[in-house]
Specification:
Number of strands of chain B: 8
Number of helices of chain A: 2
Order of helices and strands of chain A: HEEEEHEEEEEEEEEEEEEEEEEE
Distance between the termini of chain B: 75 Å
Helix content of chain A: 10-25%
Radius of gyration of chain B: 25 Å
Number of domains of chain B: 1
Distance between the termini of chain A: 49 Å
Strand content of chain B: 25-35%
Oligomer: heterodimer
Largest interface: A-B, 45 and 46 residues
Largest sheet of chain B: 4 strands, mixed
Structural class of chain A: mainly beta
Radius of gyration of chain A: 27 Å
Shape of chain A: elongated
Helix content of chain B: 25-40%
Chain lengths: 414, 163
């Protein structure tokens, strides 16, 4: 009798165990299949969202006002250039996107940092005038449900290095998507300064010309006639180069933003985006109250697609003092709606040393990248869908990449 | 001998129960799977349809565009062998941070419904202030199902589903 009871107990336990194992295994298979479908949904959503961002100029966007060219509130999020159709983005809408990089605090204002002295280029817009991540995701309808990261990066990558300082020699390496850009024609703009006026203001000079990359994508700039030397900061320069081959165009720059002992260096800030007010200040990261004043000479150029700089405000000169007030200038009204750049040359009379910095006006004029995200952190355990479109910003080829992940816990199946 | 009888009395119903219990469990789990699939597909279709409406609107809203634009959708005719239909209503944006002036944007609430099952899903599409939505129904099985938009000389864009 006891043996039969044990038999029954064992068989019942085995039966229940088999049933539970069946439910568990079957359930897990179904769970995996649902996860797979959710990830498929993410991929579709990512593609739709990227098209909605890139093929829509956003609102307001009409003859009188465009959100990318003013400080107005945005009511629909899109980055397309309102003057064009298809995948052509507005260089100015991109300037108003709040970058995920560290913000800069200067003179009681937080500045959005799209470029903080990368190769001497500064693009600092007051944070209060930028479109933040929360507003953009609310307008896109993804707030609280999806996380996004939008990266707008130039298709062609440039590396510009000083390979000799006396006489100055620059090596330019141009790469496409994973391969060097061989035998590509380049055009360059070389701004330099190594002399001053009687008042001690640095004098801006310009030289232009063509170059060609070799089979490894490399070109070398050298001009023995000019005889420039960067040793002891005796010369400063801003080198802007454009590569164009088979309809693919890229631009990049390198500015010698030299840090001068006891005087620091100069960073341009956009004080008011809509009014085009620019202020020049000692770079706040290097600034101390006993820094000496720097003489400067700045020129704002418009840069049309033909890659010939048109001076719109020439030879703005003055002194930048560590204790202020900071000199300001305004970009002419008719020059604000076209991409361009501001070149600033500075000089320390006590050190007899030069430096230069550049501020792009409109993404694309000197090939600045934009990363729009809540923060640079990427979720580790989430399925991330990615989609890419080839776009243009002005005449420059860019790649727009959107990363999308769910905030509702679509975890990666491990 | 009584042991064998008792064993048969207990084991036989359990074995018979197994015949029903396993298929019932399988069916229960499969129902969960099918429902999830249906909901997700409906959600995906609603999101894609909303995106299509938004793209048609912004394309026609461009200053160089004029006239009537019709976009046929590439959505599935059936979801798990079930047709579905959709309606949309146009309203004001309620979140003041999205529309500080209170008159610039309109929100299109798009609702899709699986015909026989009754499952519904909703998605929102943000459009400009110059949009009008005409009462219409999206029918998935219709050969011409899509979105049409007409731009009037005053800039107003009238939109509806085609079927």
């Amino acid at each position: 009798m006891a043996g039969a009871v044990i038999d029954h107990m064992i068989s019942l336990i085995i039966f229940l165990a088999v049933l539970l194992a069946f439910i568990g295994l079957f359930g897990e298979t179904v769970q995996t299949a649902i996860m797979y479908q959710k990830n498929g949904y993410l991929a579709t959503k990512c593609s739709d969202l990227l098209d909605n961002i890139l093929l829509n100029p956003g609102s307001p966007s009409n003859e009188t006002v465009h959100w990318g060219r003013s400080n107005c509130a945005i009511t629909s999020f899109g980055l397309q250039d309102p003057e064009f159709t298809e995948y052509r983005l507005s260089p100015f809408s991109l300037m108003r996107l709040q970058s995920s990089s560290e913000e800069i605090y200067y003179n009681n204002t937080w500045y959005n940092n799209a470029s903080w002295g990368i190769e001497g280029a500064y693009l600092l817009v007051p944070k209060s005038e930028c479109i933040n991540y929360s507003t953009a995701t609310k307008l896109l309808g993804t707030n609280g449900t999806f996380g996004i990261q939008l990266e707008i990066t130039p298709t062609l990558t440039f590396t510009i290095k000083e390979q000799a300082e006396s006489p100055l020699e620059l090596a330019i390496q141009v790469d496409g998507q994973g391969i060097p850009l061989s035998n590509a024609p380049l055009t360059y703009l070389m701004f330099w300064t190594d002399t001053t006026s009687q008042e001690g203001k640095p004098i801006l000079n310009l030289e232009t010309g063509p170059l060609t990359t070799d089979p490894t994508g490399k070109a070398v700039w050298r001009n023995d006639t000019l005889g420039l030397t960067t040793a002891d900061n005796k010369t400063a320069y801003t080198f802007i180069v454009k590569a164009s081959i088979g309809g693919l165009t890229g631009v990049n720059c390198k500015s010698r933003n030299a840090y001068i002992e006891n005087a620091g260096n100069i960073a341009p800030f956009i004080d008011n985006y809509e009014d085009g007010t620019i202020l020049l200040a000692h770079n706040p990261k290097n600034n101390t109250s006993d820094n000496e004043a720097l003489h400067f000479n700045a020129t704002f150029y418009s840069l049309p697609d033909i890659f010939w700089p048109i001076p719109r405000l020439s030879n703005w000169t003055g002194l930048v003092n560590a204790t202020g007030p900071d000199p300001t200038m305004q970009i002419p009204v008719d020059a604000r709606s076209a991409p361009g750049f501001l070149i600033v040359a500075y000089y320390s009379s006590s050190e007899n040393a030069f430096g230069m910095s550049i501020m792009p006006w409109g993404i694309g004029s000197v090939g600045v990248s934009v990363v729009f995200a809540e923060n640079p952190f990427m979720p580790a355990n989430e399925w991330v869908a990615a989609d890419i479109r080839q776009v243009r910003v002005g005449d420059t080829a860019y790649q727009a990449k959107l990363l999308l992940w769910s905030l509702e816990g679509y975890e990666v199946v491990k | 001998m009584p042991h064998v009888t008792i064993e048969h009395m207990i084991m036989m119903p359990i074995l018979i129960l197994q015949i029903f219990l396993f298929p019932l469990t399988a069916s229960w789990i499969m129902n969960i799977w099918v429902n999830s699939r249906r909901n997700l597909t409906l959600q995906e279709v609603a999101s894609h349809l909303g995106s299509t409406i938004q793209q048609v609107y912004f394309l026609l809203n461009h200053k160089t565009m004029d006239g009537t634009l019709t976009q046929e959708t590439d959505l599935p005719l059936l979801i798990e062998n079930v047709p579905y239909s959709g309606n949309a209503t146009l309203g004001a944006v309620l979140d003041p941070t999205l529309d500080p002036t209170g008159s610039s944007s309109k929100l299109l609430e798009l609702t899709l419904k699986l015909s026989e099952i009754g499952t519904t899903t909703t998605t929102s599409v943000l459009l400009g202030q110059n949009v009008l939505w005409l009462e219409s129904t999206y029918v998935s099985t219709s050969p011409n199902s899509g979105v049409t938009a007409t731009k009037f000389p005053n800039g107003t864009i009238s939109m509806s589903f085609t079927s």
